[in-house]
Amino acid sequence: MKKTIFTLFLLLAAFTLQAAVGDTFTSEDGNNYLVTAEGETNTLEYQGGTSSSTITVPNIVTYNGIDYSVTSISSYVHYRDGVVSSIVIGDSVKIIKHHAFEICINLTSVVIGNSVETIEFCAFGQSPNLTSVVIGKSVKKIGYSAFSPSSSLQKCIIYSVVPPTLDSYYGMGGEAFSEVSKSAVLYVPKGSTILYEESGWNTFSQVKEIEGTSAGIGSIIEVNGIRYRITAQEESGNTVEVTKNTGFTGVATIPGSINYKGIDYSVTAIGQEAFSYCSGLSSVDIPNSVTSIGNGAFFYCTGLSSVTIPNSVTSIEGWAFNSCTGLETITVQATTPPALGDDIFYYIPISSISEIVLYVPEESIPLYQAADQWKDFIHIQPLPSDSIAVKDITLNIERLSLKVGEVYSLTDTVLPANATNKGVSWASSNPRVASVYNSTVTAHAPGTAVITVTTEEGGFTASCTVTVEKDNLIYIEPAQEGQIVVEGGLDLAKIPTGTEVVFIITPDEGYTLLYLLVNGTKIYPEAFENTLKSANIRAKKMYKVRLTVTDDMYISAVYGLATGMEHIEGASLKVYAIDELLYVKGLSASVRAEVYNLVGAKMIHTVLKPGEPLHLNGVPSGIYLLKIENKTFKFIKK
Fold it and tell me: 564 Cβ partners below 8 Å, 6+ apart?
């Protein structure tokens, strides 16, 4: 009996080690936490603790041998904290609640991790010395007065491509950022400046792109005076839609594909309200790559007199041509009437509808006369007889071999030779191997790609298979997005010792070659002297390095973010990292330590004691400068 009771006691004691929801505890570093979930997912809310100049909210807290993710920060945790000067919030936190760090009069910098989605009202408000704010890529909503007033703010860096919603106080003002000086700069990802300028972030008079970032899905780019939104970035191809072009005038000629920063995109849609209220738009040329026309795309374009809709368009959403009172002719090339949303041609007077001529394929006239909304047009006529229909298209060659860096211009022939519409679009099945822009093919890497040309009228196609040869070139894979170092040796066993080989290194956009690691020895680009050459291939830098193969040769390429800055080191001190900690060897006394990113924003400001590490929790991946008194170090956080 005694044994049974003793065993039961041990089991009960073991069960009490698991904290229950609603329990609170103090961690070893003196911070207080509330258990918000336990079981398959263990989560905590940060509830403050001992005040210090630098407050770091960690990603993980271990309590009684159990790991908990810190997912929220409680209200009023450091309200009126006059000691804190720097706040770093880890990547596991999803919400920062209201008034969490309000009225911190000595607060100068805030770094918010990549998982934070909501910053509630007054979270960092009334902090008069706040000069630098860094916000991660996941934030969707920022409450009113979250950082107001912002008169001391110098830089706000935000990594979200899509601008977060800025709340106001019941619609009566109280903006998230207010009283922002004209010298303050808002840094956003590449391709997002237009989005921020037009979505309520106009309290910042200066909006610039973050160096080293690239345009992503949702980014708005401008090519030849027309704005596009990136809708897909995939191995199979990149796509864009025409987005809002406020105040556009004249003729809108939309190509089947565009090239932005060396990357090809296919234009697949005319987006919602793309040209709405553009009364100065006179005509629009829609390519055969477009499959849909969005809601209100040409709403109130009163100066639009003619439009041609290619046979690739299968749907037109509501109000697309609503109030286009100047329309005289509409040409639809599709044999099957495109599906229409609500009130496509609404607010065009009946008298005008009766005068507009709708041109469609002759054999499809009965279909249009019976189709909803299309049947409202009185004058439905066959495509003009003087219009010579496209019957086919050919290319001058069907197969092509190129070497990396070479270009070739294909020649297309639209048949018959006197066809009225000779417009075409180009596409590559594998742009990483070979891309195409306006018939010009550029070889990038060994492999095979199929280049296809498509007629705007009829959708006829012709193809050329492009093989990019490897020869005696060895290709070191480019850095992938978000990585700084790429390792992984190349198998040179099949190449005879003593063979002279040209290695090709092509870093992705935003990266540069730091050095080659050859059999464990670093070889910097400047050491190659005349054997290292560079050339621009579709805006990418290509390095050519000539080396002689040795026994058991092992090579990898080490990349860094392309910053254009020289490597800086401090004398007598050495810096090394272990996980999220940065150690400075050689300190004899306490010193002031500051970490800046490459746009000058202060990420960390603290006093560093000999042997004490510098915590990098919550600091995003990238290149940073560590300043210790009069010495500066450059380091990379992966």
Answer: none
